[in-house]
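Summary for the steering committee. One of the milestones for this cycle was to obtain a three-dimensional model of the protein with calcium ion bound, which we needed before selecting residues for the alanine scan. The sequence and ligand used are listed below.
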Amino acid sequence: MGSQESIPKDAPAQMHHYYSKFMRECPSGMLSLHEFKRLLDIPGTDPQVDLYIKRVFDIFDLNHDGFIDFLEFIAAINLVIRGKIDQKLKWYFKLYDADGNGCIDKKELLSIFSAIQAINGYTNMSAEEFTNMVFQKIDVNNDGELTLEEFINGVESDEDLMELISKSFDLSNVLKVIQNGRRNSV
Ligand SMILES: [Ca+2]
Ligand SMILES: [Ca+2]
Ligand SMILES: [Ca+2]
């Protein structure tokens, strides 16, 4: 299987378009964690949320130099626009696997869901209930950890879960902000 992706004809124009948008939002060309938070317009009072945004930032920051540059930004845009479902799920898996040991445990999932609830508002299901539900559904061998395989297979075959995961960090939001410019908070 060739994993090489063909670059569409309009790619340079599109790149240029995003480049000018990116530079307008971030004139230095290097987006810091602080600017990233401001760009996403996420209120930063909850330590869980701070931790979560930091994780998202670290995943964008591919070379780990503490900034998101244009190329890293474009890599994320590409994932949003052209990424296949399992590529996106791999991205989410990386986001959830906080200690990077290749498995998502309950504590990791719980901390993500708590942060999401703090950002998106609380639902009638607690973060604990969510976490337990997810493990009940997709932890096939019942060892309390989700491997990448369990995660991808499980989420792909469950529409509700897929929606939940996609909402946990809406990548297209980042795109929207860059497209339309940041909302000016008065
Ligand atoms: Ca970087
Ligand atoms: Ca882990
Ligand atoms: Ca398992």
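Key point for the committee: Residues 61, 63, 65, 67-69, 72 surround calcium ion (ligand 1) (CB under 6 Å).
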